[in-house]
């Protein structure tokens, strides 16, 4: 038996032993958007999923649902105003951010009918209505056809049933956050859905999400919070996020055990542009100010927590809630 073989064997045994000793952060009953746990979240091959509800109607621009340049008829738009009143939204991303499917619950059946008629004129959109509920799929090919079949099927699972790993991560997020929760979901790292979403809303997190691969993170679970009304007049971007007081918390599981995770943090911090030197709740954290948002990262065991907001104080308050809850959970 060679010395090299012994070294490899010892390393393998050590890795298995360390993996078995990883610390699991405390789980609880996180504060979630109204209706999240009861809503159906079908497993339609989604690379990401978002459920949004603030418990009261939200105005969304009509142009989000219809595009006159791509419409086969302009007749359905005669009954549509500048916005639709939406009570609940759930949407999943397919292979990319422009392939998606989900369900929209409108405030009235009349608006649901107008939206269905308008959406039916759009290119690459399949749409169906059931009372106030409107289901839709945007995309082409096998994924779109399969997603439509799954979304229309009876007996759909809840989020916890359909995505148990993502649900376990959500349960580590705050039970008593500084602001009310308005959205929640998950996103897979593979496929770049996080980078695409960050780029679309111009938050400036692309460097951070790209660096997560260094920590062997495969998916991210998140909850979004806001003390203000989520109604949108035009687009969602840095100004909208700031005006609405938006913040978000995320939890993600690293493929490394906690005793090894620390050795990769420096490389992750360097690639993500994160800096050392700040503390939250008496603990060292990594931070980055990208202008449009302030980002805080803190590993606990082999789970990585992240908070982000255009308002530094909100990002700090959210990370404080996470770390204080974890401290209590271990007590």
Key words describing this protein structure:
single chain; Protein Transport Mog1p, Chain A; 2 domains; 13 strands; 10 helices; 331 residues; alpha+beta
Please provide a written account of the structure.
The chain is built from 10 helices and 13 strands. It folds into 2 domains: 48-152, no CATH class; 159-330, Protein Transport Mog1p, Chain A (3-Layer(aba) Sandwich). It has helices spanning 3-20, 109-119, 141-152, 159-162, 164-170, 193-201, 206-211, 238-243, 258-272, 312-330, and strands at 48-52, 58-61, 83-93, 100-106, 125-130, 133-138, 181-188, 219-225, 247-253, 275-280, 283-289, 294-300, 303-309. The model is unreliable at 3-21 (pLDDT under 50). Strands 1, 2, 3, 4, 5, 6, 7, 8, 9, 10, 11, 12 and 13 form a 13-stranded antiparallel sheet that branches. It starts with a helix and ends with a helix. With 331 residues, it is α+β, with helices and mostly antiparallel strands.
């Amino acid at each position: 038996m060679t010395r090299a073989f012994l070294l490899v064997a010892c390393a393998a045994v050590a890795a298995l032993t360390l993996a078995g000793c990883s610390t699991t952060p405390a789980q609880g009953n996180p504060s979630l958007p109204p209706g999240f746990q009861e809503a159906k979240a079908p497993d339609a091959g989604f690379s990401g999923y978002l459920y949004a509800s603030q418990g009261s109607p939200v105005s969304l621009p009509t142009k989000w649902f219809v595009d006159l340049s791509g419409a086969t008829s302009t007749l359905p738009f005669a009954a549509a105003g500048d916005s639709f009143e939406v009570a609940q939204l759930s949407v999943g991303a397919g292979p990319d951010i422009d392939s998606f499917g989900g369900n929209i619950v409108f405030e009235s059946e009349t608006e649901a009918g107008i939206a269905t008629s308008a959406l039916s004129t759009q290119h690459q959109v399949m749409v169906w209505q059931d009372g106030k509920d409107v289901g839709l799929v945007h995309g082409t090919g096998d994924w779109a056809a399969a997603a439509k079949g799954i979304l229309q099927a009876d007996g759909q699972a809840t989020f916890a049933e359909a995505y148990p790993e993502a649900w376990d991560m959500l349960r580590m997020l705050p039970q008593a956050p500084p602001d009310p929760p308005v959205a929640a979901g998950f996103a897979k790292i593979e496929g770049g859905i996080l980078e695409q979403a960050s780029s679309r809303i111009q938050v400036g997190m692309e460097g951070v999400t790209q660096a997560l691969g260094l920590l062997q993170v495969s998916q991210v679970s998140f909850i979004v919070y806001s003390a203000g009304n989520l109604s949108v007049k035009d687009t969602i971007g840095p100004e909208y996020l700031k005006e609405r007081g938006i913040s978000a918390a995320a939890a993600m599981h690293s493929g490394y055990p906690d005793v090894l995770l620390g050795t990769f943090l420096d490389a992750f911090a360097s690639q993500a542009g994160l800096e050392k030197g700040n503390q939250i709740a008496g603990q060292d954290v990594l931070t980055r100010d990208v202008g449009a948002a302030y980002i805080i990262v803190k590993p606990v065991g082999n789970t990585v927590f992240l908070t982000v907001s255009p308002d530094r104080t909100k990002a700090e308050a959210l990370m404080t809630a996470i770390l204080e809850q974890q401290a209590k959970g271990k007590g």
